[in-house]
Amino acid sequence: MTKLSQLIAAGSLLLLANLGAASDEPDSTPYTPKHEAGRCAIRGHCGSKSLFGGQLPCVDNDPAEEPDEKLRNQLVELCGPKWSTGPVCCLAEQVATLKKSFSTPNQILAACPACKDNFYNLFCTFTCSPDQSLFINVTKTVVKNGKTLVTELDQLVHPDYGTGFYDSCKDVKFGPTNSKAMDLIGGGAKNYSQMLTFLGKERLGGSPFQMNFPGEYSEPGMGAIPAKARKCNDEDPDFRCACVDCEATCPALPDIEESGSCHVGKLPCLSFASIFTYGVLLFTSVLAVVGHVAWRRHAKRRSERLRLLADAAPSDDEDEGDLTENGAMFDRPQKTYIVNTWCDAAFSRLGHVAARFPAITIVTSIIFVSILSAGWFHFELEKDPARLWVSPTSAAAEEKAFFDSNFGPFYRAEKIFLVNDTEPSGPGPVLSRDTLTWWMGVEKSVRDLRGQQWGSTLQDLCLKPTGNACVVQTVSAYFQNEPGLVDDDWKETLRMCADSPVECRPEYGQPLEPNMILGGYSSDPADAIAMTVTWVLNNYPEGSPELDRAMDWEQAMKTRTLQLQEEAKQRGLRLSFSTEISLEEELNKSTNTDAKIIVISYIIMFLYASIALGSTTLSVRDFLRNPAISLVESKFTLGVVGILIVLMSITSSIGLFSWAGLRATLIIVDVIPFIVLAVGVDNIFLIVHEFERVNISHPDEVVEVRISKALGRMGPSILFSAITETISFALGAFVGMPAVRNFAIYAAGAVFINAILQVTMFISVLTLNQIRVEDSRADCFPCVQVKSARIHLSSSNGTGARFYEAPEESWLQQFIHKTYAPWLLGKKTKAVVVMVFLGIFAAGVALIPEIELGLDQRVAIPDDSYLIPYFNDLYDYFDAGPPVYFVTREFNGTQRKQQEEVCARYTSCEQMSLTNILEQERKRADVSYISSPTASWLDDFFQWLDPMNKNCCVEMGKPCFAGRRDDTRTLAGLPEGEEFVRYLNKFLKSPTTETCPLGGLASYGSAVVVDSERDTIPASHFRTSHSPLRSQDDFIKAYASARRISKIISDSTGLDVFPYSVFYVFFDQYASIVSLTAALLGSAVGIIFLVSTALLGSVITATVVAATVVMVIVDIIGAMAVMGVSLNAVSLVNLIICVGIAVEFCAHIARAFMFPSRKFMERVRNRFRGRDARAWTALTNVGGSVFSGITVTKILGVTVLAFTRSKIFEIYYFRVWVALVVFAASHALVFLPVALSLFGGEGYIDPESDGGLEEDLAARRYRALMPEADDTDSDEGY
C-alpha cells in the first residue's frame, strides 16, 4: 500500500519534536512547575523511544536565552522577521529539523500564503517561543540514558487563532487531483479542534509523542496567548490566497436567471395566463347567454301581447310563396373560384385519360416506381446515435471531432455494480471479508480474460496513464488487490483509505475517491449498500483493427459478467453491468422486437381498408337477399391495390433518396409506412365513395366519364391535403439533426409519390374494377362471371343488364345526416362545443410548461434488458458525476498575458481567469452542476517549476529556477516564449513520485498538445467534473450550464474555450429543440394557411383550418405532459406527423364546405341556411369517409402498438398517436364544422355539381333515389 507518510508527518509534531527518549518509569514531580513569561517548557533533543522512533524534546523549565547569530538567521529565514529579536526556547538542532519537516507542507500549502503562515507560526511558536510555559504544560515523561524525554503535553491554542487557522486552510487544494490540504494536514477535519487533535495524535508516521489541545485549562498561570491568524483574504496582499483556495477572494459572478422562472404563485406564467383568459371568456359567455335568454323571454311576452291586438285571420296570400326547393338552396354559393375550376378541369382530364388507357397508366406507373426503387441497391441504415441526433455541422459535433483528434476518443468503460438489496429485511452492507476475497478472484479472472476472435487481454487494451498499470477503479485497490491483506481489521483499512485516498493509491497512481467505488452509505463506507468497479479501456477510431479487438474483448466480458450474475445471486447479492457495446446492442434488439408489432399494425389497417371499401355498395339487406352479389360487389382486390400503391410510394421514396446518398433511419423504416397508410387509405375511401355517388347520379354515362367526374370533384381535395402534408414534412429538411431531416425528406417524398399514384394508377385500377362489376365478374377472380348476381340488377330500356339501383345508405351515413349533423349544428350544441374545445385548448396551453425534455435510456431499450437494473443502480448508487473538460483552442501559453488569463494561484493572475471562473462556478454547484475543483495544468506546471519544490524540476542537481523567483506570489521569473515550451515538455514527461507529487505525466500527459515549432498550445483541456446527474433534466441542465460557463470564460479572457463531456453530443439537441419545435410547427401551420387560402379561395376559412390544426397540436402537446411523453427528437418527428395527419382530417371537410355539392345541399333541412347549410353538406358528404377512412383505420393500427414490448414505442408512438387520433378526429368531425358554420368564408359553386340542365336532372335523380331525412323545421334557440 502506498503511503505518503511525509505528508502526514508534515502536519504533525513528530518532525518538529526532534530527539526523544524512553524510560520505564515516569517522574511524579511537576515537569513544568513555573508558568511565567520568558520561561520555557521544553528545549533541545533528548533521544527517541526506539530505534525507528522520532526525536523527543527534553523537559526544560529554565528561562529563555538569546540565540547566537547563526541560529537567529536560521530562525528568521524559516519563521519570519518577527523572530529577529528576543530570547528563544529552542536550539539549532530543533530549527534544522523544523526546516526539514516543513519541506512537504510547503508543497501542500505554498499556494495559500495565509494558511502556510498560520501553519508555520503555530509550530515555530510551539518550538521556539520564549513564553512556552504560559501555554505548554508537560504532563508525562520517560527517563532514558539519564535524560527526561517528553511523551505527552498539553498545549493551549486560543480559539480565535485555531478557528482562523482552520478557516484559512479548509479550502486549500493540492496537486493535479485537487486533493484538499485539510485531508493531509488535518485528517479531513471539519473544525479546528479536530484538526489540532489529528496533528497532536501520537502514532506511527505522525507525532512521536501525544499532544493534547484542551479547550479549558485549570493550571494556574497558564492561558492561550491571544494571536491573530492570517485570513485567506488577508488585508496584506502578501498573504492573500488565490480564489481556488479561498472563496472570499473570488470575484462575484453574475446571478443566473433560470429559464421558465416566471411564476404566478406556483403556476408558470403561461399556465396562469391561459387559465385566467379562459376563465374570463367563460364567465363572459355565461353572462351573455343568461342575458340573451332573459331578453328572448321578454321579447316573447311582448310579442304575445301585440299578437292579441292584431288580426289573427290568415291571409289569402300566405301560401303563395311556398318553396319548391328547401331554403338552403337560395343561399347556396353563386360565384365560381377560378383556381378550383382549373383544378377540377385538370383532374377531370387526368381521370379520363387514366380511365381510358388503364393498361398504359398502370404499366407506366410500375416502370416509374421500379426505376426509383432501384435506389435500394444503395440503401444504408444509420444506427450510430451520434450521427442520428447531432448535426455534423453543429458545434457539439465539431467539438467532439476536435477533442477526439487532439486527445483521442473518450475512453471505453466497462462497469459493474454489486448490490446487497435482495433480502426481505431490506438493503444491507455489500462488503464483507468473504465478498472482498471472492471479488478479488473475480477481478483476476477478468485480467486473464481473452477475446474469442483476437485473443486480446485487458492488459493489451486498457488505459495505462503511468506505465504498465491498468486503470481499474475498484475497492480492491484499497487492499493492493491482495486477498491476504483483507484481515479482521479490513473495515479500519477501508475507513482509513476512504478518509485519505492519497494514502491508498492504486497501481496506476491516481487517488481513488470512495464515491467512485462505493454507494448507498452516509458516513461509514463499511455500510455501503453497493460497490462499483470500472475497467477503463482505450478507445479508437471507428473501423480500426484496435476497435475490433476492444469490442471482441467486451463480448467476452459480457459473457463472463452474465455468469457472475448467477454467482452473485448465490451469495445473496445482485449484480448489474454494462459494457461499451451494450447500449447499441440492446437498442437494436428493441427495434427487432418492434418490427413485428408494426407489421401486425399495418396488416390490420390493410385488412380493414380492403373489407370496408366493399361495404360502400353492399348492404346487409342486399347480401341476405342475394348472397352471390357479395362476390361481385366486394372490393377486396381494389383495397389490396390501394395498399400496394402505398407500399410502392414508400419503396419509391426510399429508393429515390438512397440514389441521392441519404441514409435511412429506424424511425423512417418504422413510421413512414404508418403515415402514408394514414394519408393513402383516406384518399382511397374518398375517391371510391365519390365514385359510387356519381354512379347513382349518372348511371347512363360510360365508366370513363363517371371516373372523370369523381376525380374532378375529389382531386382538388386530394391536392389540398397532399400539398400541405408534403410541404409540412419537407420543412424538416431544413433541420440540421440528421434523424429529423432524413425522416422529413423521406416522408415528404412518400406522401407526394403516393398522391401521384392514387390519381393515376389507382384510378386506372378503379376503372377496371368497375368494368368487372358491371359485367358481374367475381372479385379476385375476374375471369369468373357470377350470373346469379344479375338477378339483383335492374334493366335499362330492355337492352340488357343494368347494374345500378340506389343502394341503401350505410348506417353511418344515415346517422350523420339524420341525427349527428342536425344535432351538432344546433345553436345550443355549437355554443357548448366552442366552449368545451376552447377549454381543452386552454388546458393544453397551460400544460406546455410541464413538458419535460430528454429521452431516458431506460425507455429506449426492451423492458427485460439487463441494462435496466444497471441504469437504476447508476442513478441510485453512483455518487460521482461525469468528467467535463473545458478545452482551449490555440492558447498561446508562451505569452504572459495569456498565462494570466488562465492561471489562478498567483496574485498577478486575472480575477476572471479561466480557472477562477470555474472555481466560482463550483461553489454554486446547484446551478452550475460543477462539483470538483479544476485540474489546471498551467498552475501545477508553474508550481512544479517553483524552486521551493526542490525535488521536482531539477537541472544539474539544482532546482530549475533557483535564484529567479524572488517574488513567489506572482508569475515573475517563470518562463515565457521558447523556454515555456521547453520546460512544459519536460513537465508533461515528469512522473508523479513520493518526493514530487506534481509531476505532469500521469495527470496531464494527454491533456496538453504542444506545438514546439510554433511555440504554442494548439489544444489543451482543464478537467473538472459534474455533480451526480440522476435524471435527463440534470443532464440537460448540466450541458446548458457548461455552455454558459464557457461563454463567460471566452468573453472574459478572449480565449477560444468550449466544454466537452462524453454525453454532450447526445444532449446538444436540447439546446435548441424548443425553438426548433416552435419554428417547425409554426412554419407548417403558416404553410397550411397559405395553401388553404390559395386552394380554398378564402382567407377566413384558411384561418379556421389553420387555427383548428393549431388547437389539435397544442392539445396533443398538453396530452404529452399528462402522459409523461418528453420532448426530444423522436417526439419532434411525431409532432411533425401530427401536423400532416391533422391537415388530412380537416382538409376534406373544409373543401366540402367551400365547394358544397348540390346533390347534398338539396337535402339540407329547411332550418339550416347559409354557413349552417354548407357545414351540414360537408359533414354529410365527406364526414363518413373521414370517419371510416381515417379515424377507424388509425384506431385499429394504433391499438396494436399498445402490445409492444418496447417502452419507446409504447410512450413515444402509441401514446402520441392515440392523442393524435382522438384530438384530430374530434376537431375535424366536431369542432371544425361548428367553427365553419360560425366563421367560415363565402363558398363557391362546385363545377362538378353545377353543369346545366343535365347536372340538374342528375341531381334530381340522385335526390329522388336517396331516402329522405325526417325534416324538422324547428329551430333550436335559447
TrEMBL record:
For the keyword Transport, the answer is yes
The domain of life is: Eukaryota
Which stretches are transmembrane?
275-295, 357-379, 599-624, 636-660, 666-688, 718-737, 743-768, 831-848, 1070-1092, 1099-1123, 1129-1154, 1175-1204, 1216-1239
Q: What is its main location?
A: membrane
Q: Where is the SSD domain?
A: 594-768
Which keywords does the record carry? Disulfide bond, Glycoprotein, Lipid metabolism, Lipid transport, Membrane, Signal, Transmembrane, Transmembrane helix, Transport
| Signal peptide segment | 1-22
Record localization: Endomembrane system
Per the record's keyword annotation, is Repeat included, yes or no?
A: no
Q: Which processes are annotated in GO (biological process)?
A: lipid metabolic process; sterol transport
Any Pfam family the entry gives:
NPC1_MLD
Write one Gene Ontology MF term. Answer: sterol binding
Task: Write down the InterPro entries for this protein, in alphabetical order.
Answer: HMGCR/SNAP/NPC1-like_SSD, NPC1_MLD, NPC1_N, SSD
**UniProt xrefs under SUPFAM superfamilies:** Multidrug efflux transporter AcrB transmembrane domain
GO cellular component terms, semicolon-separated:
endomembrane system; membrane
Family of this protein:
Belongs to the patched family.
Q: Indicate what this protein is called per its UniProt record.
A: Patched family-domain-containing protein
Organism of origin is Cercophora newfieldiana
